[in-house]
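Progress note, sequence design subtask.
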């Protein structure tokens, strides 16, 4: 089974889609897919589907959705058997397993874009810690390339999925932040300018992305624009959140004010945000 959730939901068994079109069975499959090979409690599925106000028939209705998913799985398994594909001897009940208190989607050792993202991002973080910035940039860029849009972009999520979507987005932002930092340490500041222009517009209060944009501009000889980025961010933070920029960002601003536009020396090996220009 191949599972993609970093964008549109796509679940395939033997290369054949088992993704339903109906919204609620789609929600059930989304949550099972994200936690493939783990038991998802019935209570979590009911909370996802009915947000704390389940009908009296909730468990029976959930069982109906499971049966619909098994019907799609069975059709995919039958198709695979007809095509003579290996690994098609399983039954639908062995793929979508009923267990005490919940259900488990058995991936059968197939692919998962979330698992691959976590693996590649982990390699990138370890490369950063080791000072291998080229390796970190490569691994993190590959991890981010698995995303084709927001997680579960075509699923109308409930409370459980919304929480998972926020978690995944935070993981993506962390990987993006570290990939940009690796590129900055490799002197790729000019190549980053277009990307960071878009990112700071999208994430208007994200301090580290703004700090990275300031560094990239400054190291490209555009000190005035770098300082303007700081002032725009400060205005947004004060106006929308009632907060001043962090101490690290204020230090970066002072460093840019005091440094010459040619200052572009790398900073020490650290996972902390870049705050020095020389």
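Output:
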């Amino acid at each position: 089974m191949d599972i993609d959730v970093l964008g549109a939901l796509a679940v395939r068994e033997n290369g054949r889609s088992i993704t339903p079109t109906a919204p609620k069975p789609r929600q059930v499959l989304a949550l099972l897919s994200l936690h493939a090979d783990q038991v998802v409690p019935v209570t979590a599925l009911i909370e996802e589907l009915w947000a704390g106000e389940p009908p009296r028939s909730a468990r029976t209705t959930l069982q109906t959705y499971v049966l619909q998913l098994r019907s799609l799985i069975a059709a995919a398994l039958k198709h695979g058997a007809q095509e003579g594909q290996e690994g098609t001897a399983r039954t639908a009940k062995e793929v979508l397993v009923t267990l005490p208190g919940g259900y488990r989607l058995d991936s059968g050792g197939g692919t998962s874009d979330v698992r691959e993202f976590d693996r590649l991002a982990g390699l990138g973080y370890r490369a950063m810690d080791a000072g291998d910035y080229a390796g970190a940039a490569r691994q993190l860029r590959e991890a981010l390339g698995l995303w084709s849009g927001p997680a579960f972009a075509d699923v109308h999520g409930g409370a459980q999925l919304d929480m998972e979507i926020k978690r995944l987005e935070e993981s993506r932002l962390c990987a993006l932040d570290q990939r940009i930092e690796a590129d900055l340490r490799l002197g790729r500041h000019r190549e980053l300018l277009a990307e960071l222009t878009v990112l700071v517009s999208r994430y208007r209060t994200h301090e580290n992305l703004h700090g990275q944009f300031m560094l990239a501009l400054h190291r490209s000889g555009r000190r005035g624009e770098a300082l303007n980025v700081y002032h725009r961010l400060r205005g947004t933070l004060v106006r929308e959140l009632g907060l001043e920029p962090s101490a690290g960002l204020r230090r970066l601003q002072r460093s840019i004010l005091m440094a010459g536009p040619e200052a572009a020396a790398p900073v020490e090996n650290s996972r902390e945000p870049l705050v020095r220009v020389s």
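The chain has a mean pLDDT of 90. Work on this subtask will continue into the next period as scheduled.
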